Amino acid sequence: MIEMKVAGIALDAISRNPVVLLRDTDDRRALPIYIGQDQAKSIIGALENQPAPRPLTHDLFVNLIDDWEMTLERIVIHALKDNTFYALLTLSAGETRKELDARPSDAIAIALRLDAPIWVMEEVIADASIPVDRAADEAEKQAFREFISNLSPSDFTQQGGISNDTFEQ
């Protein structure tokens, strides 16, 4: 899993739909997730620490967590199926821990209000993220190519205590 932070909310240039943009802590990858208008407003309110005059749905959920003395340990965006992201809220109260299915936009809005970490599975990052630092990505690819080009078959038999006898059984 990769920890990510909310970089902000943007509007898609073509559809004009809001997009929440998550970034990894190294600022190397970004994950855009299309969300609804209400969730965008809620996330912006949390980012700007602007409370609503009356509790909105995400505020109500946070109040419930607080009043029942629960903790939001983290949210995890764990899957991408048919262009739909899936998330889990990990809640705990004492020794009890539960995971609740949630839309990523709702999970993010709640996590921001409770200062809970946002995690994304590597598979989701691989499938849906966009590079932020192309130069660093290219440098990493080049370093890997150089590493591979300098390997010889004997490197595999000498490291980690593996000998040719291991494979002859």
TrEMBL record:
One function term, GO molecular function aspect: nuclease activity
Domain BFN residues, every copy: 1-132
Regions that span the bilayer: none
InterPro entries with a match to the protein in the record: BFN_sf, Bi_nuclease_dom
Superkingdom field: Bacteria
Pfam families registered for this protein in UniProt: BFN_dom
Name this polypeptide is given: Bifunctional nuclease family protein
UniProt source species: Leptolyngbya iicbica LK
